[in-house]
């Protein structure tokens, strides 16, 4: 009696595994059956290759897939994240279809949201359809150049703190991790504008706020494992759970915002910052939970992105002395040498610095891909193929930005590419995304990076640290959503 039970059990296990394998392999025929070009997905990771094991950056992998489709003469294709199918436009015409022309078919990002279990998971970045439209409409008037200009003094004050932090390091001509310094500068700007508190992480890197946000971006292997089991990785949008499902962070931010709001209400404090704007929106029905979620979003969306752009740009300046000198000349000629007097309009007039930043964001698109989700059956133009609602879409930004057909010699840092903006074909250069769901905070992102660059270039010179590599390489094992470099970005800093 005993032996047949074991045998039966083994047969059951074997049949289940074979059945699962057959089902899983069948998933890899999804695009072929639809008549959409696909590559050679492999069991079990699909098209993710080594990036599934953290041995190649996901953005680099997507860049490889982009070239495989393009070299095969395809303008779009279908890829697989594990066994999940993803629509993958390659040609700018098809990119534009998703982001703008047929935006109503691709309104969502398909991000994980669960307001009850993970309250911070729901915000303007992640919300679907009508909820997103409503919040975007409410918040858009608060990101105009006029509103950002009214926050300029906060940015100016932080830029002066940045100089104070760098001065003693420059006097000793030390090699400094500029990514770390800029993270602290941006934490001070975005933390102050989003939460209305003096963050002070430039002066005090060990502050409670600094410690807490370092947890926001730390992802333990255990969390990743739980995510795989609970949600799967077939949809890139599930990554949102990884970041926002953290009870202690949640408590910290809820307490922080509650205390500040109570204080401001009690003392009639009005400040030119995002928190004030969100507080005013209470009259339109915005709840406390929504206020905290949006404040945390503004912080996270501006923090790693802006500090990465700044450190990448300085890295390029260090390796291109002439470009660094030309940028400094422009700053001093147009704005003088007292950076505490630089004005909002003055910063905007720095056209060469602007080109340098554009070229930085081309070479190192801090968010290496854009994502959307199909919400309405979409027919790919010129074909009978339809994309079904629920299908995720990925736009391979790194592939486009480093495509030699669009940007010859793509690893060369050449701000002159942007001399004539018309030369930069649209829907190829997408550092802030495009269409109705582009980056709402791009003005703040640009002003805080330009001002910091102007201030530090005016006072200091940057040269490569010993042994630093010419072209920054994305850390393959990173779980960060931004283009993240292993070991920081070290530069030697000298007083001028
Ligand atoms: C240099 C700095 C920044 C870069 C490179 C950047 C880049 C991006 C990109 C690529 C997207 C996705 C756009 C798309 O899918 O089409 C995005 C979305 C977004 N960004 Fe930024 N960002 C920056 C700074 C900021 C700042 C400072 C804020 C807020 C204060 C912000 C708030 C947002 C929000 C709320 C969204 C979602 C918009 C929506 O779904 O409606 N960003 N950003």
Q: Report the total helices.
A: 19
Low-confidence stretches: none
Instruction: Give the strand line-up of the largest sheet.
Output: 3-9-8
Number of domains: 1
Task: Please identify the structural class as seen in this structure.
Answer: mainly alpha
Give the end-to-end Cα distance, rounded to a whole number of Å: 88 Å
- SSE arrangement, N to C: HHHEEHHHHEHHHHHHHHHHEEEEHHEE
Q: Any ligands, ions or cofactors bound here, and which?
A: protoporphyrin IX containing FE
Helix content: 40-55%
The H-level CATH homologous superfamily, spelled out, is: Cytochrome P450
CATH topology: Cytochrome p450
Radius of gyration: 24 Å
The number of distinct β-strands equals 9
Provide the residue-averaged pLDDT.
93
Please write the CATH class name.
Mainly Alpha
Largest sheet: 3 strands, antiparallel
Described by the principal axes of the CA atoms, the overall outline is globular
Instruction: Please give the CATH architecture.
Output: Orthogonal Bundle
Residues in β-strands, percent: 5-15%
Description:
This is Cytochrome P450. Keywords: Endoplasmic reticulum, Heme, Iron, Membrane, Metal-binding, Microsome, Monooxygenase, Oxidoreductase, Transmembrane, Transmembrane helix. One of its GO terms (molecular function) is monooxygenase activity. Helices cover 51% and strands 8% of the residues. The model has no long low-confidence stretch (mean pLDDT 93). The chain has helices at 2-27, 30-34, 58-71, 92-101, 129-139, 145-150, 152-171, 178-195, 208-216, 221-230, 239-244, 247-267, 274-280, 288-319, 321-335, 344-348, 351-363, 397-401, 442-459; strands at 76-81, 84-89, 175-177, 370-373, 378-379, 386-387, 392-395, 460-464, 490-495. The termini are far apart. The radius of gyration is 24 Å and the shape is globular. Helix 14 crosses helix 15. It is built from 19 helices and nine strands. With 496 residues, the protein is mainly alpha-helical. It has a three-stranded antiparallel β-sheet. The protein has a two-stranded antiparallel sheet with strand order 1-2. A hairpin with a 2-residue loop joins strand 1 (76-81) and strand 2 (84-89). The chain has a single domain (37-495), classed as Orthogonal Bundle (Cytochrome p450). Protoporphyrin IX containing FE binds next to helix 14 and helix 19.
């Amino acid at each position: 009696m005993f032996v047949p039970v074991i045998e039966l059990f083994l047969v059951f296990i074997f049949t289940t595994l074979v059945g699962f394998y057959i089902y899983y392999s069948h998933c890899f025929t999804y695009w072929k059956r639809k008549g959409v070009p696909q590559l050679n997905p492999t069991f079990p990771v699909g098209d993710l290759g080594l990036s599934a094991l953290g041995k190649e950056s996901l953005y680099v992998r997507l860049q490889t897939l982009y070239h495989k489709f393009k070299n095969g003469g395809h303008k779009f294709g279908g890829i697989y994240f594990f066994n999940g199918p993803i629509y993958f436009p390659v040609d700018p015409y098809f990119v534009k279809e998703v982001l703008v022309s047929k935006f109503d078919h691709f309104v969502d990002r398909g991000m994980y949201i669960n307001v009850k279990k993970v309250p911070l998971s729901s915000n303007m970045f992640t919300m679907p359809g009508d909820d997103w439209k409503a919040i975007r409409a409410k918040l858009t008037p608060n990101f105009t150049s006029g509103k950002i200009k009214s926050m300029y003094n906060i940015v100016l004050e932080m830029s002066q703190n940045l100089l104070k932090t760098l001065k003693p390091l420059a006097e000793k001509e030390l090699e400094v991790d500029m990514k770390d310094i800029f993270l602290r500068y941006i934490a001070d700007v975005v933390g102050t504008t989003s939460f209305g508190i003096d963050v002070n992480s430039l002066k005090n890197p060990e502050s409670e706020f600094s410690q807490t946000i370092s947890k926001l971006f730390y992802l333990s292997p255990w969390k990743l494992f739980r995510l795989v089991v609970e949600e799967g990785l077939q949809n890139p949008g599930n990554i949102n759970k990884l970041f926002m499902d953290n009870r202690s962070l949640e408590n910290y931010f809820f307490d922080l915002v509650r205390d500040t709001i109570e204080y401001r209400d009690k003392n009639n404090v009005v400040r030119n910052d995002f928190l004030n704007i969100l507080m005013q929106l209470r009259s339109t029905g915005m709840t406390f939970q929504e206020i905290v979620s949006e404040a945390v979003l503004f912080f996270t969306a501006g923090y790693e992105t802006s500090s990465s752009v700044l450190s990448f740009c300085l890295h390029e300046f260090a390796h291109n002395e002439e470009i660094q000198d030309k940028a400094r000349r422009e700053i001093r000629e147009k704005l003088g040498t007292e950076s505490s007097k630089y004005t909002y309009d003055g910063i905007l007039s720095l056209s060469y610095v602007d080109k340098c930043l554009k070229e930085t964001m081309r070479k190192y698109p801090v968010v290496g891909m854009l994502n959307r989700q199909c919400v309405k059956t979409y027919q790919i133009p010129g074909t009978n193929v339809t994309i079904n609602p629920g299908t995720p879409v990925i736009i391979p930004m790194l592939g486009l930005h480093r495509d030699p057909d669009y940007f010859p010699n793509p690893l060369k840092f050449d701000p002159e590419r942007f001399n004539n903006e018309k030369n930069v074909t649209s829907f190829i250069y997408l550092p802030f995304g495009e269409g109705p769901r582009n980056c709402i905070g791009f003005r703040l992102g640009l002003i805080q990076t330009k001002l910091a660059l102007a201030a530090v270039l005016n006072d200091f010179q940057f040269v490569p640290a010993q042994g630093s590599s010419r072209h920054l390489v994305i850390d393959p094992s990173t779980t960060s959503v931004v283009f993240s470099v292993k070991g920081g970005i070290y530069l030697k800093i000298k007083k001028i």
